[in-house]
Amino acid sequence: MSQFIPGGYKIVIFHDHILPQLTSNDLIEQCCDMNEFHLILSNNRSLIRVLACTYEIFLALSKDLMPPKLDKIYFINTSSSNVLSSMINEDESLPKIIISSERELIVRVLLDISICFYNQLKKYQEKGDQSSANICGQIVLDALDLLKQHNEYLCPL
Questions:
Q1: Are 125 and 119 contacting, i.e. CB atoms less than 8 angstroms apart?
Q2: pLDDT (tens digit, 9 = 90+) per residue, 98-138?
Q3: CA atoms within 13 A on the CB side of 53
Q4: Per-residue confidence at 86, pLDDT binned at 50, 70, 90?
Q5: What is the pTM of this model?
Q6: 96-99 and 72-76: which strand pairing?
Q7: What three-state secondary structure class fits 76?
Q8: What's the Cα-to-Cα distance from 45 to each of 10, 29, 92, rounded to whole Å?
Q9: What angle do CA 35, 38, 43 make, to 5 degrees?
Q10: Are 84 and 98 in contact (CB under 8 A)?
């Protein structure tokens, strides 16, 4: 699926456990082990557009593991302090968003996929490539369907 985005597309999540609502596929990779995280980063460096991890894990990454096409970083907040917010806002080179819950992370990741592939769908339509546009549209629908399937977990009343 990621081949339909020029330059590729991948979201990498490092969390203390795997989120079952987000199945790993060629768009999303999850891990809970630092060695596996480094391996995923090094093997997919040019494809990674979104990264989710704690601020501490991010600071521990070496420059050679940093994805060059990174569009966004989600920092998973493991404490209730505002220190994280002030530290993150020091560098404004790319969007950094503090995530306060698993639910928020899941919703944002699925929406990122939907927005990215919808934008690409429009580009394919402009070029007259309806076949690729249809595939991108199906990926958008699949991501939105996952939101719908997990609605009770993601948006409790």
A1: no
A2: 998 888 899 999 999 999 999 999 999 999 999 999 999 99
A3: 22
A4: low
A5: 0.87
A6: parallel
A7: strand
A8: 9, 12, 21
A9: 125
A10: yes
